[in-house]
Amino acid sequence: VGVIHISEEARDDVAQKLRIGIYFAAWWALNVVFNIYNKKVLNAFPFPWLTSTLSLAAGSLMMLVSWGSRVADPPKTDLDFWKALAPVAVAHTIGHVAATVSMSKVAVSFTHIIKSGEPAFAVLVSRLFLGETFPLPVYLSLMPIIGGCALAALTELNFNMAGFMGAMISNLAFVFRNIFSKKGMNGKSVSGMNYYACLSMMSLLILTPFAVAVEGPQVWAAGWQKAISQIGPNFVWWVMAQSVFYHLYNQVSYMSLDEISPLTFSIGNTMKRISVIISSIIIFRTPVQPINGLGAAIAVLGTFLYSQAKQ
Ligand code: 3PG
């Protein structure tokens, strides 16, 4: 019986590793596709507030249809759940729109190099707002992260302040989002997939009035006509692809968060950025100077050192 028991455990372990491996591979692949279509859309139609809103709208619609048709079970939520979700949704909305504004101003690779500095923000926020302290190696690992990001920013050929600040604001907002959502998901009453669905819906409600105020239907209509006349009817597919893939990669990442520690999650997220940085440089033929690439490599290496130090 003992032998059967052990082999069953081993089988469960292999099955879980395989499942997490599939989640990670899907998360990175979906994210690369999102980033490419998002940038293609922003190049032709530079309205990041609208594209951010459409991403949330597509996800909300897909999940409402899934719940209505019972493809997915709707979550059982109460007022307390939505109250706890509110700060997560505010942070998610700010982080999402700030990253998209950044990508509308600079190369996708640059936004993600700055976003690879997120662990430095996590440590600073935990230290300053939550009073958490960390062992010395964690603080030391921030030096290559901050230094690498700074070097990459200083040597970026197409540096733009709004693009840089957007990525920085996104880092800060996502650190708060992760802190709040870890608290909210701890009860485990709602699965990762449904948690992210509710998050999208609430963020959509928050973002829509701001998107209308900042950009607005008139500029959207004029921009849309121009984009269609330049790109042709395919442009509609690009917009749909960026919206649907945005939801899918986030959904998969929240599904994997159900099964892994936040630390494993952040390592996965950094590896995701490497694939986005490399693929977007190739696809958009982004000019990169060696010193600029060195800065990016140091920043990413720093994130790995950080994850080791935290372990
Ligand atoms: C967004 O638009 O929300 C950002 O591209 C998300 O960035 P991240 O999920 O890679 O942190």
TrEMBL record:
Keywords: Chloroplast, Membrane, Plastid, Transit peptide, Transmembrane, Transmembrane helix, Transport
Single GO BP term: monocarboxylic acid transport
Sugar phosphate transporter domain residues: 18-307
Membrane topology: Multi-pass membrane protein
Cellular component terms (Gene Ontology): chloroplast membrane
Single annotated GO MF: organophosphate ester transmembrane transporter activity
Transmembrane portions of the chain: 20-37, 49-67, 161-180, 192-211, 231-249, 290-307
Main location per the UniProt record: plastid
Location of this chain's protein in the cell: Plastid, Chloroplast membrane
Name of the protein: Glucose-6-phosphate/phosphate translocator 2, chloroplastic
Organism: Apostasia shenzhenica
Residues of the full protein shown: 89 to 399 of 399
